[in-house]
Amino acid sequence: MPLPAPAAALVAALVAHGGDNVATVLFYGSNLRTGDVEGLLDFYVLVDSLTGWRDSRPLAAATRLLPPSVEYWEVPWQGHTLRAKVAVMGIDQFARSTRFDGIDTTIWARFTQPVMLAHARDPAARQQVRAAVTQAVTTATRWAALLGPAEGTARDYWEALFKATYSAELRVEKASRGVSIVDHAADRYAAMLSPAWASARVPFEEWPDGRLHLLLSPAERARAASAWAWRGRFGKVLNIARLVKAAFTFTGGVDYLLWKLHRHSGVRLELTPWQRRHPILSAPGILWKLKRMGAIR
Fold this sequence. Notes:
Blueprint: H1 5-18, E1 22-28, H2 30-34, E2 40-47, H3 51-54, H4 57-65, E3 69-77, E4 80-90, H5 91-97, H6 106-110, E5 115-120, H7 123-147, E6 151-152, H8 154-167, H9 177-183, H10 186-200, E7 204-206, E8 212-214, H11 218-249, H12 253-265, H13 273-277, H14 279-293
Parallel strand pairs: 2-4
Antiparallel strand pairs: 1-2, 1-5, 3-4, 6-8, 7-8
Protein name: Phosphatidate cytidylyltransferase
């Protein structure tokens, strides 16, 4: 697929900011799946040096401890304003986060979904991120086998996986979210499962009617259920920790919240310089003002 021109403009701005420190940029999310480039575009920027991205040791330390860090970007383009949510983490962190033995499920689950390599600094960076995304898929399909039915269609396994990963996070999503993700690229998911299982050495048989039959022992499934329960509990704690971190490190977060407010309520709110510098301290007064304006109930 060609990179849409608005997404390319945002990628160019990200690379111009980070320079050679930017190893790769990944374009993903609902906008990529639907082809719609309005609203908020989603990118992951993978860098060699975290301090080289924002020149901030405290932010780099926070990102090293709890990746990624999230930023809101606005870029003028052809008389319009392009908007993006940008997650930043080290390319080494990204590779580790796609491993099967990792506790955090968010990265590998996200990057089993359609993703575009929007920028690669050089062939080595391209190969490194492609290997990590491949590993994300094999990790996901191993969990799909361990958490899914003993036999079923490829769709059955993917839906079981996404149901499990969404329940392991603090997400405001409908129960049918996993189904809708598969619907956007059903043929892709069906085509990926068998070769990914073969790569991950998951024992299975494919029956003449296209259904898949797993050759896993009850003991393997029991161990997996226990391991996943722990990941589910840890995942919610991790999400809370990320929200707390974002309150202090979300670059451009105030502008992002103002844009979301206007998009959903039609209310435009102007903040004072002090409110912008101290969004947490000024939050009670801002919420009271929004209530009086009818933006919240």
